[in-house]
Predict the structure.
Amino acid sequence: MNSAPHAAPTLSGSAILDDLEYRGLLFDCTHREELAKRLDAGPITLYCGFDPTADSLHVGNMVPLLALRRFQLAGHRPLALAGGATGRIGDPSGRATERQLLTPEILAHNVACVKEQLKRLLDFSDGIANPAQLVDNADWIAPISFLDFLRDFGKHFTVNHMMAKESVRARMEDRDTGLSFTEFSYMLIQAADFLHLHRTHGCELQLGGSDQWGNITAGLDLCRKKAEAQVFGLTLPLITNADGSKFGKSVAGAVWMDPAKTSVYRFYQFWIRTDDRDVIRFLKYFTFMGRAEIEALEAQHAAHPDRRDAHKALAFAVTELVHGRDEASMASLASVVLFGGEMDRLPENALQKLSQEIPCTDIEAARLTAPSAAAEGAAPGVGLIDALVETGLCPSKGQARKDIQGNGIYVNNVRENNPARVLAADAFAYGKFLLLRKGKANYAMLRAG
């Protein structure tokens, strides 16, 4: 990544804290006044960790990673910590049950995959003063023996203190599930991470979700006891939808940043379908738009919610950030087409991708020049009634005829009420693609080849 994403505002010093607060992203902070003074004094190194439990990040990971990017744009140096060690244990925070334990081989594969996605969110360029860096806590945790760990780290924490942490207490109170010793140790490892990064990189700030507060403050305590250093912790809110449901899920499951898991079009659609009550909040959380731009969209949304300007801005900005401008543009155009826009606006590769997102029926190209059995006079092409049945939009030819005569059928988003219509070659975009629609939202595509 060689440039800041989407007109990111330039902030300096403690102004980053004010910006986070405006965006609703500042959930809690240790020693805020001291942190503000430290930020005003000059750049700092900060980190945020994530356990590579999958070979792709998902949209739920974005808030803390984008917070790292916000600090980077303000001149600070971000470290993204991949939990090659902690990922083998599983964080009990916010969990009712123990996480599945992963092998070192799977974790290494996941880290390698995720690193490529991080390059979209953080700037790793060597040519800048504060390039991001990916670190893996397996590099320093794995070589420590169990006895050394207990002696060097465990002795600095009392069980009473650890049990007072919310992430531990909640599980301890559940008699059926409980908390394994493995999970109980997670807090100590995360604290050891902070100490290691402070000593080796001069790291002074850890970011995390609000469920990480206990783990973060444990790291602060360890840095104070073993390095006599004042370091800081800042937590971000856990995102939920306006209806209280968990953010980041679609009908098909998690929304991934890997296009092989969640296509760019479906990724864009996830954001375009944001609840009206959430869209302005999500613009603040997930984009780098400045306050003036967000407030302008908020005013437009209040005045003309039917135009969905805020939704389109959100979907394009986040898709551009994760997948690039070209992919975001194609997803936007495809979305316009599926909401009744003109087919000729889409480039061929966008239509090809769209054919993978909606029901698509392949037909032989020769059928477009051969006489149609369904048309009087044997005109060349495919009869519309036949096409509706073949694509599954209509269960029978009789129903297809009724739907056409009832003004419920569209060809390339143009209403068609002639049952004898023949779909000739000139109706297919690029000689390959033709879009059929029944009613408002039932789409199918014919693809000639």
In short: The chain has three domains: 15-236, 249-339, 360-448.
